[in-house]
Amino acid sequence: MIRFEHAGLRYGVGPEVLSDINFSLEPGSFHFLNGPSGAGKTSLMSLMYLGRKPTRGLVSMFGQTVNDMEQSQLGLLRQKIGVVFQDFRLMPHLSAFDNVALPLRIIGTSEKEIRSNVNELLEWVGLGDYKLSLPRTLSGGQQQRIAIARAVIARPKLLLADEPTGNLDDEMGFRLMNLFEQLNNMGTTIVIATHSQLIMEKFGHPRLILESGHLRVDQPKNWLQRKMDGVF
Predict the structure, then answer these.
(1) Phi, psi of 169 (to 5 degrees)
(2) pTM of the complete model beyond 0.85
(3) For 89, left (φ over 0), alpha (ψ -120 to 50), or beta?
(4) Is 185 exposed, middle or buried (0-12, 13-18, 19+ CB in 10 A)?
(5) Tens digit of pLDDT for each residue in 117-153?
């Protein structure tokens, strides 16, 4: 699904913010991305959702090397990726319903199916009464739930989420984590950037840990047993 080989990233002529990143993620895997502020998590996420290309090394997505791809080719790959941005990036002139419906409209889903799927998901995230509301009229937590619903509505092959539960209370955070678990069980590969030790310990998936631009993979000691027991 994802392969990084000695990948590096720098902005302009500054020092590298990511250095010699080497890892691969199998289809259907679930990882947390963790590390202190400034470690490079957002930069790594931008490479994974094809917002940037590496300044050295190789990045492959869905079996294709992206380094020399044209924007049109990258656009086709992006249709397979759902992204929850930390700043939400909702379309300000669109209602909550139309923001969530956008990925389905891009791929040509019928309006009848869009109405059914979007209304059901908005109810599930507790925003059924706000489907006609514009983003500016919603709280930060409500906007975050809209952003999550938009990211998952088309059942992407890859879901990337940057602090998706950061503005939510524990109950809603766990509810949305269970939604991510359901998507993962249906085959979606998931990477969630989070600082929440509670979330990481409760759900127990392997961790990609960034420190000063370098990455290592950490497997919790009880991860394999939990998986065999069907905990997630």
Answers:
(1) -75, 165
(2) yes
(3) left
(4) exposed
(5) 999 999 999 999 999 999 999 999 899 999 999 999 9
